[in-house]
Specification:
2 copies of one chain form a homodimer.
Chain A (H helix, E strand, L loop, with lengths): L1 H7 L1 E3 H8 L3 H13 L3 E4 L2 E4 L4 H11 L2 H13 L6 E4 L3 H10 L5 E5 L2 H8 L4 E5 L2 E4 L4 E3 H9 L3 E6 L3 E2 L3 E4 L2 H12 L1 E7 L11 E5 L5 E5 L4 H10 L3 E4 L2
Parallel strand pairs in A: 4-5, 4-9, 5-6, 9-12, 12-14, 14-15
Antiparallel strand pairs in A: 1-3, 2-3, 7-8, 10-11, 11-13
Chain A binds a DNA duplex through helix 3.
DNA sequence: TTAATTTAACAGCCATTTTTGTTAAAAGTG
DNA sequence: CACTTTTAACAAAAATGGCTGTTAAATTAA
């Protein structure tokens, strides 16, 4: 439904109810949820896409999707983690996919600011879970801000896994300042830095540079990425790993 | 069922199955659970109450229960919080009861290390939620340790609400060192300190002193507490509030 | 004021999880 | 060895939580 609204720019409640075959009440409820996430704004009779966030919500979609790619990437990343060691995960769905594979690597220490990953790992015995606190952001379901950066700076892990929303020839990018600050802090806190991105992120840019690609010890991409982009990335960097699907 | 066993001192499996109208298998399963909790001991054909632990299990039980008391206390505590201000909550079920009332006080900033409270408040719009990170403890479902203490020390709130497992004439107590450290840090971080305890905690002690009762700006107890203990507390401290049930 | 829209409360439905009972095999007791 | 008790595995039943639609009341715009 959000996709529909973002494409159209706006929509009326009754129109949405009809085109999705649900009641007006349900539309209202779902819109309230989307509004809470900051994705749309409700006005009397309908909704408008939160203009400034068209990008972001587009990305939010991308994050939801590509689950097969992310899972393939996650498997490769998990293979790079030593049982008994420590990993830091950022608040990306790719990192979440990695978290799903961590149970097999126990005992393991996991550090993250992503509430969804915390929920997942809180149930695992033999996983020592350290949460990075900070201000809760509903849009990302994670903890950010100064508090989080401070918390990151108080720890160090063997491996750090981050994902960014865009990757060019030279840099990894993200559009939100707040998140960039946390990711950068995370990269400083890890001995080995892994960038995990699916093919849809390649050859794109976003507002803020997170870090040069050469700062990463490994860049993991799925094999379903466009082969020309993959090749280009491999030509320029010696640290690229391709996850077979 | 546990109550029945504790009263009788012991019981047979078939007897329990009949008197509760369930199958023998179900009795076995429930007894296994009680045994895991250290409340009873299984012997061939039946169970015996774990004498040394009757007290302790009673207390564990009481912590789960007393929801009505905790809710009454929570209502009073919530009334002491100004909308627009900030509150810190510890990882107690009493604090969780307070959290349930905070939605009405929005806008509000809430700081906590209790995952259950975080889950609850993450859904509330108009609540600015700040999580205190740290090492996750499944036994308390909260974040503790050095990381948490550091995080607490980086913030200050208008009000701090803590609950402890025991309260004597002079002090508030808790049996776990790790938790004591966090609670003490929290008390240092708040302008107004509220101790919220239900009547079952009165006139008891535990291993570690958390703080003298006079350090608190308010002590909130439910009216169902034994009246002699209540009176004694009020005689010695001018900051006692009784929550009517 | 009127009509449309939004909200709140309730009840039903679906999927998931938890609890329960049955059965059969295993273990323990005398 | 014969008998009782306990355990494991599976299927049925019950409970739970999430989502939906209906209705009626509240709110808002014209």
């Amino acid at each position: 439904m959000a996709e529909h609204i973002v494409r159209q720019g706006s929509a009326s409640v009754t129109e949405l109810a009809e085109s999705f075959g649900v009641s007006v009440m349900t539309v209202h409820r779902d819109l309230d949820e989307l509004e809470r996430q900051g994705m749309v704004r409700k006005v009397r009779g309908g909704v408008t896409a939160q203009a400034s966030n068209v990008w972001e919500s587009n990305i939010a979609y991308r994050l939801q999707a590509h689950t097969a790619e992310k899972d393939a990437i996650a498997r490769v990343v998990a293979g790079m983690i030593e049982p008994g060691g420590s990993v830091m995960l950022d608040d990306s769905t790719t990192a979440l996919a990695v978290a799903r594979h961590l149970g097999d690597l126990a005992p393991l220490t996991v550090v993250t600011n992503f509430l969804e990953a915390i929920r997942l790992l809180a149930g695992s015995p033999d996983i020592r879970l350290i949460a990075l606190g900070g201000e809760y952001r509903a849009t990302h379901d994670s903890f950010l801000g100064l508090g989080c950066v401070d918390a990151v700076e108080a720890v160090s892990t063997d491996v750090v896994v981050v994902s960014t929303s865009a990757v060019s020839d030279q840099y990894a990018f993200h559009q939100e300042q707040e998140i960039v600050l946390v990711k950068r802090a995370m990269l400083r806190a890890g001995a080995r830095r892994i960038l995990a991105v699916d093919g849809s992120k390649l050859a794109r840019v976003a507002l803020h540079r997170v870090a040069p690609l050469d700062d990463f010890d490994a860049i993991v991409v799925d094999s379903a990425a466009p082969s020309d982009l993959l090749q280009r990335l491999r030509d320029r960097h010696g640290n690229v790993q391709v996850a077979e699907m």
